[in-house]
Design goal:
The complex is a heterodimer of chains A (214) and B (389).
Chain A (H helix, E strand, L loop, with lengths): L15 H4 L7 E7 L2 H7 L4 H18 L6 H8 L4 E6 L2 E6 L3 E5 L10 H7 L26 E3 L9 E2 L5 E3 L3 E6 L12 E2 L4 H5 L13
Chain B lengths: L1 E4 L6 H7 L6 E2 L2 E2 L5 E5 L1 H27 L2 H6 L7 H9 L6 E7 L8 E6 L6 H17 L13 H9 L10 E5 L4 H16 L4 E5 L4 E2 L5 E2 L8 E4 L3 H4 L14 E3 L12 H8 L9 E4 L11 E5 L9 E3 L5 E3 L9 E5 L5 E2 L2 E10 L2 E10 L9 E3 L1 E3 L2
Parallel strand pairs in B: 4-22, 7-8, 7-11, 11-12
Antiparallel strand pairs in B: 1-4, 2-3, 5-6, 5-19, 9-10, 13-17, 14-15, 14-17, 15-16, 18-19, 19-20, 20-21
The chains are: A alpha+beta (214), B alpha+beta (389).
Chain lengths: 214, 389
Amino acid sequence: MKRSQMITLALMGAPLLLTACGQSGPMEKAFIYPDVQACKTDGKLTDEACQKEFDNAQQEHLKNAPQYTSLADCEADFGDARCESRTNSGSSVFLPMMAGFMAANMLSNLRAPYPDTQNCNAGVNNGNNCNTSTTSGFSSRYGSWRGQPLYESKDDTGSWRTADNRFVSRSSGESVVSHAATESPSVGRVSRGGFGKSASMHASSSSSFHSSGS
Amino acid sequence: MQRKRCIERPRWRQLAEANGFTFHTIDGEAYWDESAYYQFSLQEIEDDIETATENLHALCMDAVDRILKNEQHLQQLCIPPEQWDLIANSWQQRDFHLYGRMDFSYHGAGSSARLLELNYDTPTSVYETGFFQWVWLEQQLQAGVLPAGADQFNSLQEKLIERFGQWPQKNTTPLYFSCVRDNLEDAGTIAYLRDCAHQAGLRTDMIAIEDIGITDADRFCDLENREIAALFKLYPWEFIWPENYAQYLRSSRTQFIEPPWKAVLSNKGILPLLWQWHQGHPNLLESYFIGSSDSPLPPAGWVSKPLYSREGANIALHAEDGSNITTEGSYGDGKRILQRIAPLPECEGNFALIGSWVVGDSAAGMGIREDNTLVTRDTSRFVPHVIID
């Protein structure tokens, strides 16, 4: 016999795998608000946590918001009257205004912990050992990060995005976001996008079918 | 070798979609085409395809060695000098390689399969060949459409799983699979290869090539900033070389599949070199390097191809009868080769190209692409085959 005896697929067939090429990594719970008042009104987090997470987001904003040397360039990305100027070591720079903030799903932030994770978290610091991934890929573990600033781009209104322009969510309040979006860019250590330019140069114009294979 | 019309399996599209074959139809045109199949004798497969594939593969491995001992050859292949060390080291270490595909023009019993080119870096149509074609055969056997005993030259999936199982870092390192974002075919291809790796017991993950990051320790990382120590990339080396992150290829210590040394073979310049070293070999076509990008049409009976091009782009074909075909593409610049024409066999207006797979160093199966022209493109139909004796 010149063919395989018996073959099967173990992972394919679950349709999500085909979209997985661009979307990988676990998801986690976070809280998204335009301002402190909205956070308090929502009532999921303690008032103290709302303020603390917002303050942290604002500090991150000053450190990590995208910077522009011209107001026009900033407004081209973020919209008219959506940028502010700062003085940075003597020279003037323009930053987009913080459109909102994302607060971590931390035990100490919550007014009432989730019933399904209460047992799991008993005696476990921040619940980090409770990474109970479910079939949806959503993890109910608690985050260990602090508030992050969020922005709204002119060409993607209605979406919350991070300082390093990662998509976060289109909804406010309690949200499910990719864990990657909660990482503070303040580590300043990681850059992306250094691969992939050649492929777009060779995208064929006659077909919507741009393979890099052969 | 015969082309036979065949009734299609009822609702095969539903089966395709349920098994991750979302690109069975492209822009409304059939890509998977089971309205016909190609029939071969066992002797045609074993003597003409399988043997030729293994013989040529051995010549290719020998060619890598010769090329890497002589800078002049690396220049002939237009490989940037800053990549030479990386390539040479990866060959010295015999870095693990997974697979490749040779494209043949073959006219059946009594003729020799002629090597048109090697796809040894980022070959695709692996899912169609290894899985969907195999399922087609099994189902058409069960349905009685194909006679009992019909076989197929196709142990591709079995050999891929076996080969992944031989990867030295199998138990220690997760293997990431990567391709460009938003391409159904490429995403399907890496999902399939990942599936095979998973079945071999490897830990696997996926990431879009555009999402790969670099840490301040110069290591490639995923979206969680975890190190990518091993990466299967369905993304050609010559695409990577001019990109920003090429500077980290060495410092990252990432192990790539296919490894850097495969760039030497996935280059049409290998064809004139093989000819130079094995002139008159029955499976090779006469071939030469030519100069510039704006060279005139080749003489009658010859084809001109860029050193680097994909999916039949930027080919100029000048047939014996004086007719010309030139194809569009974005690879028009740079050095080209001339290759003596070996027209594909034609049946009722369909031209068939044989893709013969190599896994590790073994011939592993075959897939056939059909087009309405002599040049096989990315949209050429995939048609299954059988062996009936």
